[in-house]
Amino acid sequence: FRYSNQHFIKSQEELEILYSDIPEALENNYSFHLRFNFKPKKSRPILPSIASKESGSPEEELTKLATKGLQSRLENFILKKNKIKTKEQIKEIYEVRLSHELNIINSMDYASYFLIVSDYIKWAKNNSIPVGPGRGSGAGSLVAYCLDITDLDPIEFDLIFERFLNPDRISMPDFDIDFCEEKRDQVFEYLKSKYKNGVAHIITFGKLKARMVLRDVGRVLGLSYGHVDRICKMVPFDPSRPLTLQESIDREPRFKEEVKSNIKVKKLLELSLKLEGLNRNMATHAAGVVIAGDKLAEEFPLYIDHNSNLTLPSTQYDMYSSENAGLVKFDLLGLKTLTVIDNTIKRLQSKKIDLNISKIDHNDKKVFSLLSTGETTGLFQLESAGMREAIKQMKPNKFDDIIALVALYRPGPMSNIPIYNDCKNGIKEPDYIHPTLKEILTPTYGIIIYQEQVMQIAQTLAGFTAGEADILRRAMGKKKKAELDKQKERFINGSLKNGIAKDVASFVFTKIEPFAQYGFNKSHAAAYALIAYQTAFLKTYYKEDFIAATMSTELTNTSKLREFVEELKKLKIEIVKPSINKCFSDFKATNGKIIYGLGAIKNVGFEAISNITKEREKNGDFKSFVDFIYRVDAKDVNKLQLEGLVKAGVFDEFDKDRNKILNSIPKIIQQIKNINDDKNNHQSNLFGDQDNNLTDFEFLPSKTWSQKELLSEEFKSIGFYLTNHPLNEFEEIFNQLNISSYDQFYENEKSEGLVAGTIMSIQEKKSAKGTPYAIVKFSDKQAEFELFLFAEILVSNREKLKESESFVLTLQKDKVSGEDIKKRVNVKKILYLDDVINKPYSKVTIELKNDYNLDEIKQLLSNKGETKINLIIKNQNKQAFFSLQENRKFDVKDLKSLKAKKYVEKITV
């Protein structure tokens, strides 16, 4: 087959000429789509066959396994916890619930789905892969609890099965399962081995969004990376409210300035606007796989990316098309917190501490005491600034409080947190809406927090079945008036049958409707509260190991590591600074200290450090920088990696002059290369062996870094200040100039003050009206703090706001009260710290003792400047006053130098 010159899409005019003899053919072509009516039906769910001669039908197998699982749960957990009811009463409650759920599952033909999920979860648990206790409404199923799909007793926490599955709402059950992030791929491998070609990932398509399309088009047009990067940053980065390129252009005047000054930028924007939104690349769904058995490969198009390391192929249908075609999605999510918990337990086991996290006491007073302090850094779901404030006010003392907080801390219901706290602490009386609802609302102090409570109210007041109550809950959530009116009528009629007056029923419906719109799924809240409690337990009793494990999972997340370093300072836990002989690739907890993880150093890599550590453990500590050079492998250390290690200070124990070592790296590498070029043994050792006479290597003479330079380079390598802080050396100067820490400023009574801070990060955004603002994270010697920079102050200072730069800020406290500190402080002025430090005084009076050194004073005050200098010389009861005829240079540094002299009694500025 060969293409001809006619292989192109012809215009209408060309087609009319070509088919001039049969114009009706063209007419038929244009109207063809109007002449047929075909709509493909959605396929029934396709799952692999589970039935076998040994186990019988899926329904029989499910019933058998669930019954056996209930017996195990009763013996190992349920009966041990419940001390109120008799053993027979408890068994009856659980057996009735299990039978009820099994009847629904089997009647809806979903037994196979439950068995498939249970199978891969049990395999994961049997192979030491941590699995979450539950997620979503599936945690409300007792069958799931008995099959080891979840680890949360739905009866203990009053969870409703029909919120997950019921005959009145025909839809596939959907278990979202959390796995340890590091071991999830092993589960995919298991599915591949079990179902062969019957399992696949789900394809997704990445689109050209505003920033991405600018970068791609800029690259094609040959624009410099720096120029395109600067233009891209004019598009606000806000994943929660992304702007299109056109919206960004309309809101950002700098785009128009760029277009005026550069014709290529105009072309860049024109092309980018045309291409934005198109599919750019193929990828795979982050968590979903489909399992369909033999039918998958036979009936569905699959795609294999040979350039990826994926275990499974992918469907060529996206998630929605796959579902319409009958494929069933199984979500296997990676949850980092499970990795943290697992790693913490392993660290404890290495210290002969045996802990079963599933059997810890959920009413531990020490755990609730920790939570009540708000010191929740690192705790799952509880570590945001707003959550810390909320949990401090709540002072939780029971597990239900954590469930409530997880559910309440969201836009909408968040306003109920103060009401919950006041009722809990006896400040306010709960409002139960109606006496019949008291039992349902007592656990949440009269507030409807959970969707399950809306369902229970409908059942209690209006006699709805659990399935009907779920339909009501969905109708309220979707806010469709016609459906709501229909449900309200049913609610009132049902209430009338139960002896509730019509006006009361109408009032209750009106009260619960807004709650239903933002009510939270209690099953999900309870499951995640359990993980949160487990992390709180570990931090309470094993904080060093827990923090070390958490930091080790965040090796590439500089901002998280910085938070934990601040947390360690608050907890007064010592951090062993980066050292080539004391540290390892990840963070360790030893003797109450945290040993820094070298794998967190930028541009070095976890694997490289692991191999270096193995060499150290095998052949002993490194004795010098040169000894390190001799012994490392060529694959582990290149020039960039060496520079990162040097800047981080890992070789300080050999030589604190980091710049000297840094500047000598190219010389060392070249010298070793020359030696190795002369040898023919092809050794893999990057730097030869000790016979190469490098022991007398001479480092290049270099200027020693100032403290500021050293910390600046350390910041680039580590991502924050670890060994020192750039503001520490100015403490005395700050006292002279009345510059305080942020915490001191915020606590004092003054409405305005000076605060020094070093920039850690900058995030520029746009308001809903398109006004630019920035959230800037600063650091001082005590803590970190965030400030909002609004339009005027941001625009006038944008060019100088860079990471690791230090500034003196003029701040003003708003008198308007609010929970969030960031909203209460305004930035009025921003000055470079150096400009403030070097600013000369207008007048200085220096009081000298009679043993003063005149020559030394002349030398110190030798430079002419802008400062009026007065000298007072004291001699016993007499004093002489002198005023220098010419003004001299005198700034804060001069003040510091002169104040250090013993003969200077006092300096007044």
Plain-language structure description:
By secondary structure, this protein is an alpha/beta fold. Among the domains are: 209-277, Orthogonal Bundle (Arc Repressor Mutant, subunit A), CATH 1.10.10.1600; 338-534, no CATH class; 558-718, DNA polymerase, domain 1, CATH 1.10.150; 728-837, Beta Barrel (OB fold (Dihydrolipoamide Acetyltransferase, E2P)); 843-908, no CATH class. The chain is built from 38 helices and 19 strands. Strand 8 (588-590) and strand 9 (593-595) form a beta hairpin. Helix 16 (365-373) packs across helix 25 (522-541). Mean pLDDT is 89; it is low at 816-823.
Layout of helices and strands:
Blueprint: H1 12-18, H2 23-31, H3 58-81, H4 87-107, H5 111-126, H6 142-146, E1 176-180, H7 184-195, E2 199-207, H8 210-221, H9 225-232, H10 245-251, H11 253-261, H12 263-275, E3 279-291, H13 295-299, E4 302-303, E5 314-315, H14 319-324, E6 329-335, H15 336-350, H16 365-373, H17 385-394, H18 399-408, H19 417-424, H20 438-441, H21 451-462, H22 466-478, H23 481-497, H24 502-518, H25 522-541, H26 543-552, H27 558-570, E7 575-576, E8 588-590, E9 593-595, H28 606-619, H29 625-631, H30 639-648, H31 658-677, H32 707-718, H33 731-737, E10 739-740, H34 742-747, E11 752-766, E12 772-779, E13 784-789, H35 791-797, E14 806-813, E15 825-832, H36 833-837, E16 843-848, H37 854-860, E17 864-875, E18 878-883, H38 892-899, E19 904-908
Helix pairs in contact: 3-4, 3-5, 8-9, 8-12, 10-11, 11-12, 15-25, 15-26, 16-25, 18-25, 21-22, 21-24, 22-24, 23-24, 25-26, 30-31, 30-32
